[in-house]
Amino acid sequence: ILALLSIVFLVLSSLLGYYMASRAMEPIMRSFARQREFVADASHELRTPLSVIQSSLEVLESENREGLSDFSRQLIVDLKDEVRMMTGLVGHLLTLARADSGVLQLRKETFDLAILSHQLARTFQTLLAKQAQLFELEVPDTLTVYADAERIKQLLYILLENASKYTPAGGRITLEVSEERKGKEHRVRLAVRDTGIGIAPEQQARIFDRFYRVDKVRSRRIGGTGLGLAIAEWIVQAHEGSIELESELGKGSTFTVFLPSNRKTG
Ligand code: ADP
C-alpha cells in the first residue's frame, strides 16, 4: 500500500509540476506571440511609406536632372540605395515574422524545376555579366517536383545573390540541379557554387543566424540584411529538406540543398 501511495503521489506531483510549469509559460508564450505580431505589423506598415519615398526620389531625379547640383544628384542616388536596402530588410522581416507565427504556409504545386532554373539563370546572367562574373547552369532537361515554386525561387535567388555578392569580378558561379535516389525515395539536389571569398570554419554555423554577417564593415558596403540565409533555412525546413555548406576561405563556397521530390518509384 505504501509503495502504491508513493507511486500515486509521484504521478500526482509530476502532473501538478507539469501543470504549474505550463501555466507559468503561458504569459511568456503570449508575449512572444505579441512580439512576433508587432514585428509583422510594423514591417507591413513600413512598406507603403518606403515605396512612396522610393517613387518620390525617382520623380525628383528625373524632373530636376538639369537643376540639381552634382552633390544633390549623388545624395539622391545614395538615398535610393538606402531605401532599396530598407525595403529588402522590411520584406525579409515580414517573411520571418509570418514564418514564426505559422501564418506563412507553403503553396505546393507540381512544376518543372528545370524551367524555373532557366528563368532564374536568365535574370542572373545579365546581373553577373555586369560584374564580370561567369555563370554556369547544370540542369537536366526536365525535373518535375512537388513544392512551393515561389519559395524555391526565393531560396535560389538568395543563394545566387549571395554567391555573386561575395565573389570578386572574374569569379565563377554555378547552379547545379539534379535528382538523386535515396532508397525508394527520390530527392532533389540544388547546389550553388562560387569561387568567392569563402567562409571560415568557425563562422560557418553562425551565418544562418538572423542578422549575423561575417564582416560587418565589408557587408555594409556590399549591402544586404543578414536575414537572407535565415529565410533560406526556413524555406528548406518547411519543405522537410536540409541545407549544407562547404567552404574554404579564399577559395569559395558551395551551398547544397536537398529536398524530397515527393515522387516515389513504382
Ligand atoms: P546578407 O544579407 O548579409 O548577405 P545572409 O543571411 O544572406 O545575409 O548571409 C549572412 C552572411 O553570410 C553574409 O553577410 C556573409 O558574411 C556570409 N555569406 C553568405 N553567403 C556567402 C557566400 N556565398 N560567400 C561568402 N560569404 C557568404
From TrEMBL:
Keywords, alphabetical: ATP-binding, Kinase, Membrane, Nucleotide-binding, Phosphoprotein, Transferase, Transmembrane, Transmembrane helix, Two-component regulatory system
EC code: 2.7.13.3
Gene Ontology molecular functions: ATP binding; phosphorelay sensor kinase activity
Recorded GO CC terms: plasma membrane
Membrane topology term: Multi-pass membrane protein
Reactions this protein catalyses: ATP + protein L-histidine = ADP + protein N-phospho-L-histidine
Membrane-spanning parts: 1-21
Keyword Protein transport on entry: no
Compartment list: Cell membrane
The keyword Repeat belongs to this UniProt entry's keyword annotation: no
Histidine kinase domain location: 41-263
Protein name per UniProt: histidine kinase
Residue window of the full protein shown: 171 to 436 of 436
